Amino acid sequence: MEKLPKIGLPIIIGLIVLIILFAKSAVTIESGEAGVLFKTFGDGVVTDEPPMGEGFHIVAPWNKVFVYEVRQQELFEKMKVLSSNGLEIQIDASAWYQPVYNELGNLHQTLGQGYLQRVIQPAIRSAARSVIGRYTPDDLYSTKRDAIQVEIFEETKKILDKQYVQLNEVLVRDVTLPPTIKDAIERKLKQEQESLEYEFRLVTAAKEAEKVIIEAQGKADANRILSASLTDKILQDKGIEATIKLAESPNSKVIVIGSGDSGMPIILGNN
After folding, report:
1. How many domains does the chain have?
2. Is 63 in the same domain as 84?
């Protein structure tokens, strides 16, 4: 009986050690994450195998697992850049990015978990300065913003090539110009709009005048042709046709044949 505590104590100690080792060996990868294994007594970061996926994993207690978020993430940047004429402009931009899943080991080995600050932020800032420096404030304020956004994306993507990072999109959310420049551009745009409206009214008025002239010319030509074709014989024939129709009408009337000018009948009705 006295030996039981002596035997039980090592067992209890052994169980405690096993529990501690198990706790250090158990790794849970959450949804949207992946793990990079570091072998302390091996070759260090494992780069020739896929990263550890979601779920529960058991690793040797002397090894380490570095967890990365592999979902798409957003970087929001406020940047002050110079336009082509040297004016300071503030750009609010967002970048959508994520690590390349199968290259997570290489990403950890070369850049580490601070890859956002090491490569993505410098890349988008450099690209924005380069692109904005090619445009004037007028371009940024008006029609060129979509083109500028595409150029920033393309240049940032080029810088991040072979950095084990996937850039999905760059969005220029806002462009803030100095108040004096913004007011000047708005006045210029308003004047251009008023000028376009005035030109439109002039063109419309010119077309209306042309239409009236054409209609008047058409009527004059028609009257000239009609006058040239109306002979005395045709008028007499028309008068005879009208006399016949009136004679057949039930309304009372008096017709004096041959009493009008050129021998045309005079018709006297009760009205």
Report:
1. 4
2. no
Q: Are 77 and 131 found together in one domain?
A: yes
Domain boundary among 177, 199, 216: 177
At residue 203's C-alpha, the angle toward residues 197 and 204, to 5°, is: 90
- For helices 145-159 and 121-132, the axis angle rounded to 10 degrees is 140
Q: Quick one: pLDDT at residue 114?
A: 93
Show which of 18, 46, 69 is a domain's final residue: 69
Q: For residues 144 and 168, is the Cβ–Cβ distance under 8 A? A: no
How many beta carbons lie within 10 A of that of residue 131, not counting itself? 22
Q: What is the pTM of this model?
A: 0.61
- The alpha helices in the chain, defined as continuous H runs, are 3-25, 104-110, 115, 121-132, 137-141, 145-159, 179-229, 232-248
Residues 134 and 148 in one domain: yes
Tell me the two tokens of residue 3: 């030996």
By residue range, what is the domain housing residue 206? 184-229
pLDDT band at 146 (very low <50, low <70, confident <90, very high): confident
Q: By the 8 A CB rule, do 164 and 110 touch? A: yes
Contact yes or no for 97/118 (Cβ under 8 A) = no
Whether the per-residue pLDDT at 254 is higher than 70: the answer is no
Which pLDDT value is given to residue 1?
45
pLDDT tens per residue, range 192-249: 565 666 676 777 777 777 877 887 787 777 767 766 666 666 656 666 676 676 666 6
